[in-house]
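Each letter names a residue; the fold follows as tokens. Both lines appear below:
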Amino acid sequence: MGGEGVAAGGAISLGPVTAVDLAQLDRDRVWHPFTQQQAWVAEEPLMIERGEGSYLVDIDGNRYLDGVSSLWCNVHGHGHAGIDAAVREQLEKIAHSTMLGLSHPGAVELAARLVDLAPGGLSRAFYSESGSTAVEIALKMAFQYQQQRGGQHARRTSFVHLRESYHGDTIGSVAVGGIDLFHSTYRPLLFHTHVAEPGDASDLERVLALHEEEIAAAIVEPLVQGAAGMLLHPPGYLREVRRLCDEYGVLLICDEVATGFGRTGTMFACEQEDVAPDLLCLAKGLTGGYLPLAATLASEEIYEGFLGAPEEFRTFFHGHTYTGNPLACAAALANLDAFERERTLERLQPKIALLRELLDGVEAMPEVAEVRARGVMVGIGLGEHDPALRMGHRVAVEARGRGAIVRPLSDVVVLMPPLSISEEELRELVAIVADSIRAACAAAPGQLAQAA
């Protein structure tokens, strides 16, 4: 292969690497997430080299609208001057130091600002690196808190989650996941949970009433279940969940990894129903899409449940090497600064209204079964198709050829652009997706099921 040699001991030594070399190296050495590699190696990989605002740019200089915010995390666009500068400034000081037995200014300031922004009653921030770990931490906190309360509370050892829920890919977060395609393989590894129907408060009450004394916490994605294909909850549902948790003495965990930082139109989705959870999980948009950082916010009551003399061993025995990484904290603080300085949420509202208007036209297409949207979180359902057709993937490939990156969830095409996207770019993105759906469906007319 060009640009590649074999060094002593059979190791590969890379000289100048061409685009062809990179593609082959990817096929030979990389295992991609949520990707069937047999299909992947049959296609030409797209190599992204840089980002500019709402666009991604590949190694050949081709530009693509980032229609999914680089997996739902980019907020203010790629190459944001303020976040770039904050990370560079921090790099001049220190890239990393542990928070086990130490602290640093960025982590302290960020915790204070997150608590100020979050729903009332949340007072402490525990850092990690991803949405999965933020959830894992919340589950362990809820479990240990109940154990340390003692008495009848020590029997509270299980959790309630929603069917079609997704909370990450570590073992604890998979245990409270409800998407069989992702989670069923691992069931023998998981702890037992109880499942409630999404958006149905009466079904949640049924579960709580049946298992009241054994449930430590209920976990929900507020307003929108993202990985379920943007499944929307009815108005008032989250408020009822909070009421029922209070009635049955169950903690409420809200997973805002996907919905947080403006995606539903407010900083946090919980705000829209005036709900304060006992534990709040944040990640993705926390650093503006720059660096891995997550935070689990806890109420003071839960925090105090872990206080005691060292010999009592009430400590929360959990920690990660890169917990509260200073570079990531610097990016997160600059991200919050940008929300304020650029009036991001205020300027987002007309874009949300425009997106709804544009999606009305998409929903009217005969190839589209349903459009679900909340804020800038959009799922375009293509109806029932033979899985072998990979209809959602076909749409994504068509969109790439037209200059946009979208990623399907099975046969649901997902859109979640950066909050900073312009109205002109938003119009272009939706137009590309509509054209791509038509083209993908037209390519296999004899095999398509009825969408409606």
